[in-house]
Amino acid sequence: MAEIRIERVNKRFGDKVAVRDISITISDREFLVLLGPSGCGKTTLLRAIAGLGMADSGRITIGGQDVTYLPPGQRQISMVFQSYAIFPHMTVRENIGFGLQMNKVDKAETKRRVTSAAELLHIEDLLDRRPSAMSGGQRQRVAVARALAMKARVLLMDEPLSNLDALLRLEMRAELKRLLADVDATTVYVTHDQIEALSMGDRVAVMRDGEIQQCDAPNVVYESPSNRFVGSFIGNPPMNFLEGTIRRTGDGVVVAAAQHDFSPVPEVQPLIRALSGDRVTLGIRAENMETLPEPGPDTVAVRVEVIEPLGAQNLLTVYVGGHRLKVSTHPSVPVTIDQELHIRFPAAQIRWIDPATDKVLYTP
Ligand code: ATP
Q1: For ligand 1, is residue 38 a contact (CB within 6 Å)?
Q2: How far apart are CA 39 and CA 51, in angstroms?
Q3: What value does the mean pLDDT of the chain take?
Q4: Is the CB of 83 under 6 A from ligand 1?
Q5: What CATH number should be reported for the domain whose range is 240-360?
Q6: Does ligand 1 lie within 6 Å of residue 192's CB atom?
Q7: Mind listing the pLDDT tens digit for each residue in 237-265?
Q8: Which residues make up the CATH 2.40.50.140 domain(s) of the chain?
Q9: Could you tell me which of 320, 298, 316 has the C-alpha nearest to residue 307?
């Protein structure tokens, strides 16, 4: 069992708080992704788990053992870095076997593990080459093979694909996911690429300014963000936001935004009614609006400003009542610049956000 428990971990560099009071439990064999913009503290948290940078306070356990102050070598972890960190003067075979040799694993077992890791990564033909004569993708495979050969209980990966070109990155993403599903390790994977995070993680922890904003399964983080930041950071395009004015009626509320009156679903009515001010923010994803050629009940008229054909969909930028929205449509739907379109916002797809705290009021 290699459950990782992080309890109230803090880390500062001078005045800068890099990790603020983070608590999270990563289950045995789980694949957890730490996702967030540059400087949000992902690497600092990963290094605290690795023992490469001690936490200032808090506690970290791996498999029930308190490792907070243990050096990296005693934590039974292996790591893959963005820079690969492989030795140029050693062959691929020596690189993959390096950690095993340091851990005094016997020669026969080292040979067996090096061969098996090289086969998994499809680099068995490169075993006698030196990394200086290899492509970036091949070097990355060596770094992953070296980490897997250790058969560590925890695998820590810091942006392992970010030095690869786009196509190779896509290939390696799927390959790593397949490989890691068969490995017994608990994995923590750092990236700032939200597509990578959503496609690979069992859960995604979205970080900002040293704190975890939300940690959930990829579809939950996408569909039910806990706050405005998560809605805007996850998804391409980001979630649309409309500023609305609350009108309290006899038994509920109506929200005016983008020249339209919205009726929130019954579960949300009392939550909006309880807000102190008269403002509320609506969040809706590009693919969750219905576009209609003619006006209908509950539609909003918008003007098409930009059409971006993306193959499987057209991404429209439309203008309505001081707001610009991104709307996805199927390429078979005819659309022209400056055309008037009619958009329906399905009530169940709208996320309601308190502008004072940026928190989503209700998660279906
Ligand atoms: P990136 O995606 O750019 O690697 P990150 O989310 O991994 O970013 P960290 O590297 O953990 O972020 O850094 C968090 C904050 O701590 C940043 O403001 C960074 O400048 C600061 N920081 C990190 N390491 C150090 C250090 N050794 N000395 C001083 N400040 C540091």
Answers
A1: yes
A2: 19
A3: 92
A4: no
A5: 2.40.50.140
A6: yes
A7: 999 999 999 999 888 899 999 889 999 99
A8: 240-360
A9: 316
